[in-house]
């Protein structure tokens, strides 16, 4: 299946055939993570962990199950999630007095506890995160990593003494996003969601969107300013230095396995996956290329090179299966391993390795005495190229539009006065979603494509996954 | 609360007051893991991961929810777990056609998939593990880490071509157990469970028990030989080289957050926790001890030492809070940090640090030029001492008994013919549990304490947590 012929089919094939996911589990939208996929997700998780940890956010774990009465304290929130919740109603032979829900997100699990953790200004800021399974009863069509019912989720929650401090946290979140996206070689846009599309209970929501090859936008992360919308109903107050009692200001930051979905969708090609070096379970593949009569010597020397590359700290795999080298190349190319080292007679005799890049197929000679720098540089260059290529293709999918009809595949930028009525009208007439207004882009003056009013407001409209 | 006065109360206090757990979550047996506790558990998990990974076991993730019909294929298994299962019966506004249960363990989630993964002998052995949340509706009194309803669990599952290969896997599991227990400084006994106490569906079960200070045994891990008891009902067959079709032989290996409970219970003292260096979130604490007029210089120099120790790869914390050094010492002693470095005027002027061990309180002078080896050696010695101390106290709780009545606090070893009738009689008359027969100990001839028959069978009897 060629990616350009049918992206959707290509995606489904490439994730299933290369051990990223197994969809044969008998519950719709709940898939098995085989080793290769799970390892990739763990590596993505460890990048997020590193970014949070070095800024002093602390990893915690809150229970999966949330009592119904605790869930219902913030009215907008419950309205937003009610239809999507899985309910535990029975345990052993007992009907439960209070049904328990599987977390779709953990605000309502955490906030009653925050209200006992936080007493005074000295307890602030509180900055925690967790990496957990969450659950949403999706009724739309499911798709591996992109729309599932058990979601691998990373959620950051913070509490601050003031709105300004919460805003500064959101700026830090954007910096974290920048670093993570760079490691995943993903371009993205930060878009302030419309009022009718923000997170249930939030003051405002920043969606982090990336553009898929079929011209649909995919939200890979979101950042929310709650102000005191949760802290008041959940009674999270702190005592100021002057003795006054105030509700904390809160933010959250959510990221999910969709980041892996985006990596697959954006970098892959007709051959299969291309996984960025930072999160590839195998960064370097070593393949011996034996010739008659010297098979043993060559395999032995190749194994020494494998050992050397491993011990330099690269995630390395040695493929000595009894099949032809060409089959090995193809097998690992499909799996997206960024760099392959071929080691044959000439390489051994002359003291070099032939490195083959997954992205460009370019062959590069690396001297055996230069493995660390040689491999490191190429992996680094592969990452840069993946990002550049992805950015170029995203930028080819950005358009200015002067009316909502006939939007193109990609981001469609149009003038919008900001009123809900006009916004809904844009969605209706375009058939796309109004993602919101881009953050950090200054709008040029124009006329709202619906009402014609002069405005510097901008709407980004796209079809979504 | 002194540990020796009331172990049970001491345990509850020490886990709650030192940020290992927070029991204020409103569901019984489902506790919050604050940062310090969660980090300790993550470190235990990373030791297990290392042991599995280096032997080629692959980490995966299977869905949490299991359809009722899939769960019920192995009759003994369902009987064993039925009363302990949480059921999801509703999603959004819909009653589910087939109720879904929260995994109490993942045999029934995994095995239908194994039956499609495994086709031929070339797919064997299959060796995977996962680190996940599991759920059991405990009706007994709950206790942090030891008896909870949401359990952090590590489960290894293997499939083999023959019974002998499965047996050899179990020997490898015991080797893994040895390495993990050594890192946690925990003595343990491997005990083959009785027929009526083995894992539901297993051919046999090895329990891995450790002895708590109050004389009760705690199972911290278990290893199961399933033979073909699951592979036949779940249709996990493989084709042999000769073309014949055979059911695979299976084993599992389970470990849980009880390992953390044992660490707390066994190593702690009247002051608080003592966490073994390998899993302590903070291995080395650095405290400046300022004197008047030189506070700034001393704190600055201490911070340099903190930086140096950190960069050597030790998990290090610098405590520069504006409270007296003595309060810091006490705070971190209670939290179980194995080693503290005190840095005052004399230390800086003479170029050394004063290291204070948490376990023995011994003070050791380490030259500033010798930090790596100096600290490394002490941490190593702390681990050895913790293990030795724990072994000594466990061995003081082993007794030979010639009748079931009046068993003592600890392991009570008695002759047993092996018959269920006599075994149940032992439990009734002793008031303890018959843990089973010790693995790898050769019994000496004796007479069954119930029926008087000559036997070299041994029963270990103890009260359990």
From TrEMBL, chains A, B:
Residues 44-276 form the Aminoacyl-transfer RNA synthetases class-II family profile domain. It comes from the Archaea. One of its GO terms (cellular component) is aminoacyl-tRNA synthetase multienzyme complex. GO terms for molecular function: ATP binding; proline-tRNA ligase activity. Pfam families: HGTP_anticodon, ProRS-C_1, tRNA-synt_2b. Belongs to the class-II aminoacyl-tRNA synthetase family. ProS type 3 subfamily. PANTHER family: BIFUNCTIONAL GLUTAMATE_PROLINE--TRNA LIGASE (PTHR43382:SF2), PROLYL-TRNA SYNTHETASE (PTHR43382). Homodimer. This is Proline--tRNA ligase. The gene is proS.
């Amino acid at each position: 299946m060629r990616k350009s012929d049918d992206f959707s089919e290509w995606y489904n094939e490439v994730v299933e055939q290369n051990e990223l996911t197994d969809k044969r589990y008998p519950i719709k939208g709940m898939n098995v993570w085989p080793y290769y996929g799970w390892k990739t997700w763990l590596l993505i998780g460890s990048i997020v962990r590193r970014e949070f940890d070095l800024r002093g956010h602390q990893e915690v774990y809150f229970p999966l199950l949330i009592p119904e009465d605790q869930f219902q304290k913030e009215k907008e929130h419950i309205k937003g999630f009610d239809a999507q919740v899985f309910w535990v109603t029975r345990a052993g032979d007992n009907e439960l007095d209070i049904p328990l829900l599987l977390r779709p997100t953990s605000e309502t699990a955490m906030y009653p506890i925050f209200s006992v953790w936080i007493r005074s200004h000295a307890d602030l800021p509180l900055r925690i995160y967790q990496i957990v399974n969450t659950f949403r009863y999706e009724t739309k069509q499911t798709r591996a990593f992109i729309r599932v019912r058990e979601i691998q989720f990373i959620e950051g929650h913070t509490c601050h003494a003031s709105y300004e401090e919460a805003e500064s946290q959101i700026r830090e979140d954007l910096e974290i996003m920048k670093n993570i996206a760079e490691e995943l070689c993903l371009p993205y846009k930060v878009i302030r969601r419309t009022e009718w599309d923000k997170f249930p209970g939030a003051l405002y929501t920043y969606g982090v969107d990336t553009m898929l090859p079929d011209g649909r936008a995919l939200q890979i992360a979101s950042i929310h300013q709650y102000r005191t919308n949760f802290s008041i109903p959940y009674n999270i107050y702190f005592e100021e230095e002057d003795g006054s009692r105030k509700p904390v200001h809160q933010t959250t930051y959510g990221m999910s396995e969709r980041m892996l979905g985006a990596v697959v969708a954006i970098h892959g090609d007709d051959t299969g996956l291309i996984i960025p070096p930072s999160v590839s379970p195998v960064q370097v593949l070593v393949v011996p290329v034996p010739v008659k009569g010297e098979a043993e010597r060559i395999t032995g020397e190749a194994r020494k090179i494998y050992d050397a590359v491993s011990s330099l700290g690269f995630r390395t795999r040695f493929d000595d299966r009894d099949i032809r080298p060409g089959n090995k190349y193809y097998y690992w190319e499909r799996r997206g391993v960024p760099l392959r080292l071929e080691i044959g007679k000439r390489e051994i005799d002359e003291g070099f390795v032939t490195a083959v890049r997954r992205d460009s197929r370019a062959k590069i000679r690396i001297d055996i005495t230069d493995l660390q720098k040689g491999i490191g540089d190429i992996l680094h260059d592969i990452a840069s190229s993946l990002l550049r290529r992805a950015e170029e293709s995203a930028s080819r999918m950005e358009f200015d539009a002067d009316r909502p009809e006939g939007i193109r595949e990609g981001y469609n930028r149009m003038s919008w006065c900001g009123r809900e009525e006009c916004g809904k009208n844009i969605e209706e007439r375009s058939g796309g979603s109004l993602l919101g207004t881009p953050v950090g882009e200054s709008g040029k003056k124009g006329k709202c494509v619906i009402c014609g009013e002069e405005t510097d407001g901008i709407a980004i409209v796209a079809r979504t996954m």
